[in-house]
Design goal:
The chain is of the alpha/beta class. It has one domain: Rossmann fold, CATH 3.40.50. Helix content is 40%, strand content 20%. It has a 7-stranded parallel beta sheet with strand order 3-2-1-4-5-6-7, sandwiched between helices. Strand 1, helix 1 and strand 2 form a beta-alpha-beta unit. Helix 1 crosses helix 5 and helix 2 runs parallel beside helix 3. The longest helix is centred in the middle third of the chain and has 26 residues. The relative contact order is 0.14. The model has no long low-confidence stretch (mean pLDDT 94). It holds the Pfam family adh_short. InterPro entries: NAD(P)-bd_dom_sf (IPR036291), SDR_fam (IPR002347). This is NAD(P)-dependent dehydrogenase (Short-subunit alcohol dehydrogenase family).
Length: 215
């Protein structure tokens, strides 16, 4: 049991975010989820859900620091937030794309930056980013090209931060999900959450990217 150590899931929802929360709660962690609309998340006695906007770096920083203060040291951050403007290339407006990137990339960077400042004095910690196979090739779903661009940038961010943060003992890894998340398939949320758990156990040995292929 790890009473007093916390896991924060940014962008918790009824799918992968909740599955990840359940997986880490089983290991005895205090689990706190952050969501823009907490009422979408089923009430759980083992999981706290706080309101937070991943598009607002200042408020994200404030809520992470409050969790660190009130719920014990944050050992693991899972960044699962995303925003997608669906439409063929050329359809979403520049403002749509900017709003998507604000959540998909800037929010991830802001949360990672905050966690680096909190984890560095302890010399350990895991930052796990939910990536997507569209980062490798956007053509299978061109109507999600803005999400593809965000996931590609997130993948680049993971590689950069992994190299920079490892000297502080902090592991940064993107779990690149090369398929559609769906219950009762090889891409079920529980299976991906299990991979996230093993990424944490591997620590710095996980490297900047783990590609989940459903096998």
């Amino acid at each position: 049991m790890r009473e007093g150590n916390a896991v924060v899931v940014v962008g918790i929802g009824p799918g992968l975010g909740l599955a990840a929360a359940h997986r880490f709660a089983r290991e005895g962690f205090v689990v706190v989820g952050l969501a823009r609309t907490p009422d979408r998340v089923p009430a759980e006695t083992r999981i706290e859900v706080h309101r937070a906007d991943a598009a607002d770096p200042m408020s994200l920083d404030a809520v992470l620091r409050s969790i660190e203060r009130d719920r014990g040291p944050i050992e693991i951050l899972i960044y699962n937030a995303y925003r997608a403007s669906i439409g063929p290339p050329g359809s979403p407006t520049p403002d749509d794309i900017a709003a998507d990137l604000q959540v998909n990339v800037v929010g991830a960077y802001a949360a990672s930056q905050t966690m680096h400042s909190l984890m560095s004095p302890r010399g350990r910690g895991s930052i796990i980013l939910t990536g997507g196979g569209l980062a490798l090739d956007p053509r299978p779903w061109l109507d999600a090209f803005s999400l593809s661009a965000g996931k590609a940038a997130l993948r680049n961010l993971a590689y950069s931060l992994s190299d920079a943060f490892k000297t502080s003992g902090i592991a940064v890894t993107t779990v690149t999900i090369a398929g559609r998340i769906e219950e009762n398939t090889s891409f079920a949320p529980d299976l991906i959450a299990e991979t996230m758990w093993h990424v944490h156990l591997a620590g710095l040995g996980a490297g900047p990217e783990v590609i989940f292929t459903g096998r």
